[in-house]
Amino acid sequence: MKKLRFGKSKFSGKGFYIALAISLVAVGTATTVAISKTIGDLSGDSLNLPSTSSVSEWGYSDVTKDVDNTKSDIPKVSSAAPSSAPASSQEPVSSAATQAKQAKSNTYAMPVTGEITKEYSNGELVKSETMGDWRTHDGIDIKGDANTPVKACCDGTVKEIKNDPMWGTCITLEHADGYTSYYYGLSETAQVKQDQTVAVGDVIGTIGTTNQLEIAEPSHLHFGMKKDGKWIDPTSVIK
Description:
Organism: Clostridium facile
CATH topology of the domain at 109-236: Glucose Permease (Domain IIA)
CATH superfamily of the domain at 109-236: Glucose Permease (Domain IIA)
Low-confidence stretches: 1-11, 44-72, 77-89
Region (Disordered): 66-104
Largest sheet: 8 strands, antiparallel
CATH class of the domain at 109-236: Mainly Beta
Strand content: 15-25%
Domain M23ase beta-sheet core: 136-234
Number of strands: 12
Structural class: alpha+beta
Helix content: 10-25%
InterPro entries: Cell_wall_metabolism_enzyme, Dup_hybrid_motif, M23ase_b-sheet_dom
């Protein structure tokens, strides 16, 4: 039997390294080819990317052109402020009762129906038949028998009821607009009370014989009026 002899291989030494280098070159070439093919598959055509014309300048797809921004069933909101209902041009009409009451409150009437026997002197001195001297006559004397009803000359309030030593029983009424009326020489029994509200024509008393300053004259009512605290002629208010 022959002995086997092992000698140096043809790949030993330098030959081995040459073969290794060739293998590495082959692997590198194959890798390069594979990478090139992959890059080709990833090109813009194979991915079907949208063209740059459909991309807005902000980098978002411009899809507004495909959206219908109009909708017919949405109500429009007006920017103007809601207008208020126009005010009525007509003033509310007062009832007939209210108008009659207002007219009545401004009505003045004589407290007694009768002849004026002595007029308002307007600051002038006139002779007193009872006292025999000269003095102003700050009212009017209306002729009337004793116990003749005396009425309020206007709507008002009873301010005072008093018994004066000279003028006798006196009643004072306050009215609107600064007017005050005075009734002198009444009988001692008054038919109203202080602070009582009266209407024009209400009976407040009767003509008496208590007026000592004018007792020498025929029976009458001494009636005076003031406006804002000053004596006035009653006939300038009562027509």
